[in-house]
Amino acid sequence: MTDRIISWHANPSKPRYTPPAGAVDAHCHVFGPMAQFPFSAKAKYLPEDAGPDMLFALRDHLGFDKNVIVQASCHGTDNAATLDAIAKSNGRARGVAVVDPAISEDELHAMHAGGIRGIRFNFLKRLVDDAPKDKFLEVAQRLPKGWHVVIYFEADILEELRPFMDAIPVPLVIDHMGRPDVRQGPDGADMKAFRAFLNSREDIWFKATCPDRLDAIKEGGAGDPWNAFADAVAPLVADYQDRVLWGTDWPHPN
Predict the structure, then answer these.
(1) Which residue in 25, 175, 215, 249 is the catalytic one?
(2) Which of 84, 115, 174, 242 lies in the 20 to 30 Å Cα band around 202?
(3) d(CA 12, CA 18)
(4) CB 251 within 8 A of CB 212
């Protein structure tokens, strides 16, 4: 794997919508720069550099105030690029790390000092080789005060993951609503299962993000792009307004 991917638009337009004061882009990433922060040997994709200067320029262009920078899977458990971006944000960013389950208490507290406020567990088989639930749970039980756990999975393993997620003793944030099949609509099996999960505890938040990944209808196909996503997700957002997050997912990896 040698070709590096450009996954972002170099000149994005400015939306008509103006975010409210204090609005946060709650899901974004940085890639590299590779010369300074090499990608993991296990990376499933190799993106072009997309560093903090580009991220913060987009933040200002779109009218957001702050960022939550989520460790990209291409960097593995080396969070140096994410920590570097937080340090360059002038106090306007926090981060979510990906850690080795054997991480020490001192390392966790050093990450806290660097602006990390959560860890991410990734269960997408195309992105990670191993997702040991027992070791993940042990780490979750050692997190500093005020941290949360972000979980990334696809809808077909939600029920399998329920006992694991139910045992996590800190707030949960679910990436991309657990990737439901939005073609099922708002009352489809995937959305019903996700609502039941949300109703199981009050400290679960979710990101209503990534229509480009979840909506199967693309430009040039049948129907209008993103309509299936909007139709399926809008009722969920309306019913859980105090538990929904949004983010750009810039630079739109994989």
Answers:
(1) 249
(2) 115
(3) 15
(4) no
Task: Name the nearest CA neighbour of 164 among 126, 138, 190.
Answer: 138
| Nearest alpha carbon to residue 34 among 98, 81, 96 | 81
Domains and CATH numbers, the chain: 24-245 (3.20.20.140)
Any residues with CB less than 8 A from the CB of 101 and at least 6 apart, and which?
Answer: 132, 135, 136, 138, 139
3-state DSSP assignment of residue 96: strand
| Cβ-based neighbours of 252, under 8 Å, separated by 6 or more | 7, 8, 212
User: How many CB atoms are located within 10 Å of the residue 88 CB?
Assistant: 15
| CA–CA separation, 40 and 80 (whole Å) | 12
The residues, ordered by sequence, that sit 6+ positions from 20 with a Cβ below 8 Å of its Cβ are none
Q: How far apart are CA 224 and CA 84, in angstroms?
A: 39
Tell me the two tokens of residue 140: 């979750």
pLDDT tens over the chain, length 254 residues: 467 778 888 899 999 999 999 999 999 999 989 999 999 888 888 889 999 999 999 999 999 999 999 999 999 999 999 999 999 999 999 999 999 999 999 999 999 999 999 999 999 877 766 779 999 999 999 999 999 999 999 999 999 999 999 999 999 999 999 999 999 999 999 999 999 999 999 999 999 999 988 886 554 555 666 899 999 999 999 999 999 999 999 998 76
Phi and psi angles of residue 106, each rounded to the nearest 5 degrees, phi first: -60, -40
Query: Following CA atoms 111, 171, 138, 177 in sequence, which dihedral angle do they give, to the nearest 10 degrees?
Result: -100
pTM of the predicted protein model: 0.93
C-alpha torsion sign, points 73, 79, 85, 91: positive
The whole-angstrom separation of Cα 205 and Cα 68 is: 14
